[in-house]
Amino acid sequence: MEKVRFAFADGNGEDEFFVLEETMINGSQYILVTDSDEDDAECLILKETGRKGEGDCVYEIVEDETELLAVSKVFEELLEDVNIEM
Fold first, then answer.
1. Is the dihedral of CA 65, 43, 1, 49 positive or negative?
2. What is the pTM of this model?
3. How many Å separate Cα 80 from the centre of its chain?
């Protein structure tokens, strides 16, 4: 699995994540990412919020509990062997 580099919106640094899955729900793009390829890794659900420039996407961490729960269920169905705990 290849890591993708994400730059922070404030321009102060970047981090790399493995992208486990992506999906489109109600016109919004979501990605499930993790910083480790280990079995019990922590993950984040990111939502595309707009285009910063040509070729660059802007993602934000999903923090709304209702949205997070709904999207995590979709990712669990897409990745049958994954159990997402909050």
1. positive
2. 0.83
3. 17
